[in-house]
Amino acid sequence: MTTESNVLLKLLSNIREDGAFSDLEVRCESSLFQVHRCIVCPQSIFFDRAMKSQFQKVESKEIVIYDDPFIIAKMFDFLYRADYDDSVEMSLDDVTHPQVTQQQNHIEGEQAPATVELAHRHNAKVYVVADKYVIEELKNLSRRKLESRLKSQWSDTEFIPLIEYVYGSASPPQSDLRQVISTFAVQHLATLKSSAAFHEVRRQYPDFVHDLSTIMMERVMQLEKQLRPTFGWNHLS
């Protein structure tokens, strides 16, 4: 990244933190995010349409949304910094900054839910928010972060709730994360097959079973193709 880009990101990070010159307030539960239309709207079709909507009062500078403020803070971090922190040990203040107004009853210093959920679960939630507010680059980033976390911090126990979340009603049915989850499930079948919770999830989520079996069939076909020359199967149709 060039020096000029670093300077720009630093500038955007600063105005993200102090809310200087903000012209849009986004209320989410007890938190009030003071942001800038020129930064948020070009990156999010949802906010762009909300500001242009004929149902939006001309003088209105507030949008009310209903999501997890902790995850929404990460969304705004991305819009200003092209990245977000998915580390586990973070407090709500670490991601909301002073631009979340003091009048709002957000709980300063309260431990974020990351203390009881691994970071890969948060990345899945960020993906859902990015899909909801139509922020394609954030969807891509959260997917990459999830893949990275699953590679470096694998846990059979924590993977089961992730399957339930990605294939549950909270996630979009066409989520790219389904491919990620089913692929990692195939890679770790050797240990997952001994988990009663895993087999229960297979019974509860037929879409997961479909994706899982599809990947397994593709791998069997690839293996068969590789073995044909070795075992003289080339003449077989």
Automatic annotation (TrEMBL):
<dbReference type="Pfam" id="PF00651">
    <property type="entry name" value="BTB"/>
</dbReference>
<feature type="domain" description="BTB">
    <location>
        <begin position="22"/>
        <end position="92"/>
    </location>
</feature>
<protein>
    <recommendedName>
        <fullName>BTB domain-containing protein</fullName>
    </recommendedName>
</protein>
<dbReference type="InterPro" id="IPR011333">
    <property type="entry name" value="SKP1/BTB/POZ_sf"/>
</dbReference>
<dbReference type="InterPro" id="IPR000210">
    <property type="entry name" value="BTB/POZ_dom"/>
</dbReference>
